[in-house]
Amino acid sequence: MRILDMVGDTPLLRLDKIAAEVPGIVLSAKAEFCNPSGSVKDRAAKAMLLDGMQKGLLKKGKIILDATSGNTGVAYAMMGAALGHAVTLYMPANANAERKRMLGGYGAHIVYTDPLESSDGAYLAARAAAAADPGVYFYPDQYNNKANALAHYDGTGAEILRQSRITHFVACMGTSGTFTGVAGRLKAHDSAIRAIAVQPDSPLHGIEGTKHMQSTIRPGILDESLIDDVIAVSTEEACAMTRRLAREEGLLVGISSGANVQAALKLARKAPRHSEIVTILCDTGTRYLSDSFWEAET
Question: Which residues are identified as catalytic?
Answer without folding.
Answer: 41, 256
